[in-house]
Amino acid sequence: MKKIINFKIISVFFVFITSFFIFKNLNPIKNQAILTKIISEDNKRIIFEGNSNLQEIKIEYQKTNTIFIPKIGDKVVVEKTGDNYFIADFYRLDKIFILFLFFLLTVILVIGKESIGSIISLFLSFLIIFGSILNNLINQTDPVITVLLSMIFLIPISFYLSHGINKKTTIAVFSSLISIVFALILNLIFIKTSFITGTTAEETGFLTAITQKNFDFQGLLIASIIIGIFGSIDDITINQVSVVEKIIAINPKLDDKEIYQKALSIGKDHANSIINTLVLVYTSASLPLLLLFTVSNKNFFEVLNYEVVAVEIIRILIATISIIIAIPITTYLGVKNLKNK
Q: Whole-number mean pLDDT of the chain?
């Protein structure tokens, strides 16, 4: 117990010290400024004096946003037009950094040294997504092939880092890959046959305008669904293979069919909670959209038929089906490979 406490204290201290020095010297956005004084103000705009890169500049703010109005001491992002500076946005990275630091501390304090692999896996996932997947997609490689190859590479590394190199993790890896392929097949069938274009989000128009490229938005939608499933399937497969392992450990004399049935009954309880969780998570992400259609004069089924709504329904259903199908697959592979280990 004393060693665990010492580890946590040392880890917390290390994270604080390292993060302090990194953040103190970090300047990821060059065009940021701190507002130091109000020079003038009227009904349409505020002229601030601000400090940017050790230089005093005049910064104009147009009063178009009545929710948040900049005040003295705020850190903002500025843009220069001619000789004039304008407030383009508020600076948020410091708050995000504090929240991320709190996340790390919570994980380390509660889980302990076992969390190191998961944290490394998290960083690796972001590195692959932002360093590889997005770069390949912006260069117009096939989105479906790109995300499939990335999952084949990312799932084993992520799982082994988080859960260790052992037979249990290997079973979870294979089960997850099978479920991902199953999800890909469902996507290819229902996204295409439902005439889903993938262009309903306004971001697609901005992307085309900025890059002057014709993207496969249907493929990008499929890729996004697969990445979302990857974020949920770890919990299901690892949990289910652990259930099989514990049943075998408690009563190794059970035959394969009995182990499978007992493990599957536990997996069904997990599946019921997963269904509700996924639906609520995806619904929360689309809440403004749902409110918009609620106040329209269209009936319920007309709303469901709109592509912008249909695509979210398809996303929820495919993700849920793929994750649930992972339960019997993982259970079967667990029974066959752990019984006589």
A: 81
